[in-house]
Automatic annotation (TrEMBL):
It is an enzyme of class 1 (oxidoreductase). InterPro entries: AhpC/TSA, Peroxiredoxin_AhpC-typ, Peroxiredoxin_BCP/PrxQ, Thioredoxin-like_sf, Thioredoxin_domain. It catalyses: a hydroperoxide + [thioredoxin]-dithiol = an alcohol + [thioredoxin]-disulfide + H2O. Residues 4-153 form the Thioredoxin domain. Belongs to the peroxiredoxin family. BCP/PrxQ subfamily. GO terms for biological process: cell redox homeostasis; cellular response to oxidative stress. The active site is at C47 (cysteine sulfenic acid (-soh) intermediate). Monomer. This is thioredoxin-dependent peroxiredoxin.
């Protein structure tokens, strides 16, 4: 499968969160929009800033009825330590081996580092927005919120 595009169906996956719980993307289909932010590594400067930016805006994501997940290749144990240290209020998913990263076609940075890319998936399971920036840590949060607001507004318009 090639690089995922806006308008594609988001590939389903099953990953463990920092508490060892299995999270399946398909569980949210028909119920909630989902934000998946792929990041390179726990406890690094940029990744900590990005994760904390999502944490600090969680009330806004909750108002938009969205589920937020951070995804990296770090272990469940590493995620647990990172989430506890930073008081993260959303699940971190362990993609050891990078299978889901490959499935979504997350680009690499400088051809070697795991990329930083955010996918916003509508409640219908369709990718609505993709934002890729290795250095715009906080921009991932703003881009995701804008996409979620558009999803909400489109749904309200369709109801009228």
């Amino acid at each position: 499968m090639g690089k995922l595009q806006v308008g594609d169906e988001a590939p389903d996956f099953e990953l463990k969160d920092q508490d060892g719980n299995i999270v399946k993307l398909s569980e949210f289909k028909g119920k909630y929009p989902v934000v998946l932010f792929f990041y390179p590594k726990d406890k690094t400067y940029g990744c900590t800033r990005e994760a904390c930016s999502f944490r600090d805006k969680m009330s806004e994501f909750n108002e938009l009825n969205a589920k937020v997940f951070g995804v990296s290749s770090d272990s469940v144990e590493s995620h647990k330590s990172f989430a506890d240290e930073q008081k993260l209020t959303f699940p971190l998913l362990s993609d050891e081996g990078g299978k889901v990263r490959k499935l979504y076609g997350v680009p690499k940075s400088m051809f070697i580092m795991p990329g930083r890319c955010t996918y916003v998936i509508g409640p219908d399971g369709i990718v609505r927005h993709i934002y890729n920036s290795q250095v715009g840590f906080a921009n991932h949060v703003e881009e995701a919120k804008k996409a979620l607001e558009k999803i909400r507004n489109d749904a309200q318009t369709a109801e009228e």
